[in-house]
Amino acid sequence: MEERRDSVRRLLGAVAWSLVGGSLLAGGAHACELPPGVRVESERLAVSFRTTPEKIAVGEPFTLDLAACPKGGALDLGRVRLDAHMPEHRHGMNYRTRVVRLGGGRFHSEGWLFHMPGRWEFVFELGPERLTHSVRIE
Amino acid sequence: MRRSLAALLLAAAAAALTQAPDAQAQPLDFSEAEVRAILRHGPWPAPWAGDPTNRASGSAPAIALGELLFFDPRLSPSRKVLCATCHVPYHAWQDGRARAVGLVEVDRNTPSLLDVRYQRWFGWDGAGDSLWAQSVRPISDAREMGGSRAEAAALVRGDAELACRYEKAFGAPPPASDEAVLAGIGKALAAFLETLVSGRSPFDEFRDALAVNDVAAMKKYPAAAQRGLRIFIGRGNCNACHFGPNFTNGEFHDTGVPFFVKGGVDAGRYGGIQKLERNPLNLLGAYNDDRSGASAVKTRQVALEHRNFGEFKVPTLRNVALSAPYMHNGSLATLADVVRHYSEVSPDRLHSDGIPLVKALHLSAAESADLVAFLETLSESASALAPRRPYAPCR
After folding, report:
1. Strand, helix or coil at B358?
2. Which of B40, B297, B355 lies nearest to residue A110, judging by beta carbons?
3. Distance from the B9 Cα atom to the nearest Cα atom in chain A, whole angstroms
4. Is the pTM here over 0.95, yes or no?
5. Which of A36, A109, B163, B372 has its CA 20 to 30 A from that of B273?
6. Residue B64 lies in a domain
7. Does B303 touch chain A if contact means CB atoms closer than 8 Å?
8. Is there a single domain that holds both residue B232 and residue B127?
9. Taking CB atoms and an 8 Å limit, are B303 and A93 in contact across chains?
């Protein structure tokens, strides 16, 4: 019960971040603003994300909050998978992230851990869209 | 004859002088990237804030109880095996054997307990997600201590000294549930083990001198160790896994060490995750004292993959020269053997699709010696542990 309350508290923090951007996902091109964060775009979707802590350290767990806005018209985000891998070494993380939908195109995820230094690639699959973003971790 | 003897003596003196510079070695011209890589292996001791999953973490009464239990042979019904049988204090808290021997010999090497508090997973396969859960695992292993949770709980309830100390550590007498008492035993043992932090090493002195560009202090670090360090963070890519102040990323890799055991295979991390999921003392269970839930995320989200077969935990390299033999099965007797393994490892054994993390380094004899020289500087110069003192009876 206690644990549940604390999980809710963490999620509320993520919701507060997602509200910084103003109005939530409404399907229209101009009805959706992204909160501050790292911005990644595909043809039909723009997302911004932030990690907590902001600086990712090797071998240290972190959480990731992500907000998505379709670029035009409504977009069914459907199944959402947030993951990362090291392209050069062709291996992923040793953990599967758990994604919690906060509503309005906002997501909170946990279970992130980059266990080696080098180039990692975030992979965000939201419905039909696949977005990637590379980071170098020292 | 006399002249040739004098010449020999002179030559010997000259040779000694040419080898002496290691005592006052010129620091290598490490690049900025190398300096950054070196600095990441410190400072030491690393900061540590206690274990939120263990309400007894850092508690003096729990540390005292844990220390008594660690040296108590009654945790094994045989009275022949105690925690210190394998984790020998004067042997860097391991046993110097290839494979541990409890009631019988097991398949794996005994890891040192020094600096164990910094780990994320416990045991070569990571079947333990907390130090306290891992600490009670050998009690009920038929090959190690051969006991049971009921017998361990009965011991603590029935022994006036242990029961008194249990109440002081946890604020209540040992409860009726055997499992709950076992969790308490584990938490007390963990509180004691958390105090086993190693002292500073010659590498730490060099690393801190490098951080402030104290050339005079840096010169005290042997040239061979500096050359070995350069291989470690460079061509050897050893720090991809042996990362950070504790020289481990805390995760699991296949390093090409055979995992066949008598009658089968050691499933390594794959079996460890399966055992973790079945363990009622794991962090998803009722005995985790961290109500935030943050500590249990790793246990909930860890991924069981086929590739986990043959993976074993990346051990710390601190005090590595004191903890021979090496690898999960103790199959390599010396540090030179370990370096030879990585110098000659077969790519066929490792099945890597991408750029392999472990590949044959093809080191020369001199490079191998340098790498060993570096590894030898990771041992503490002096123990940082307080001397053991007898405890006054509990009242």
Report:
1. coil
2. B297
3. 52
4. no
5. A109
6. yes
7. yes
8. no
9. yes
